[in-house]
Amino acid sequence: MALATILHGTVLRNLGALWIPVELGAPGIIEPDPEPLAWYGRQLGLIGEAQHEQDMSEAQIAQAIKFGTEVRLLANRLFQHGTLAAGTYQVRNVMPAELTFYEDMAPVPWMPDTDVFPFAVTPEHLRLLGWVDAYDEKPSLPCIDGKRPYGSSYYEADIARILNWVIEPDEYGEPEMSREQDELAAKLHSEMLWVMMAFLQHARLERQFTDLPDQ
Fold first, then answer.
1. CB contact set of 161 (below 8 Å; sequence gap of 6+)
2. Is the pTM of this model over 0.70?
């Protein structure tokens, strides 16, 4: 077993996040380039900034695949085992604004107008972060399920349950969330995009989780 290098850590922190419009929609971590292998190749210094996957040799592609797999493994471990305290963090929005797939996939109420911006991560955000799908054995990057973000398709009620909100009964005695509670739940869900970005960039991962499998 080898340990992750400084380069692994740097590339891990430079991954991006976007809003994935599947079903209800939810945020996920991605490589900030529509050509992930080329992006990893550039991080390794294998190709230049203007080069693409088609410019890579088989050996370079193999190196990029291996490195990318390791970075994805570390990203999943970070969201499984990493720690972050509630507080305000400077968050870097590393996603290039000119990428149309990013613009089309970010229907969130608030988008920053600067590349670096302060974002307040609350205890409520951190509790919802426990619903991020992140598994060592999966090659995909961490995300929240867009179909059932927090257990079911009625994500507002799930958020109320997770955060122990008091739900008043309606005229028939059945619990019914208020409009204010529905709006707050929707706001918290949309903010998870930046919570995941803040966690990715600032969470601490203990050394015991940074070993890499032999390939």
1. none
2. yes
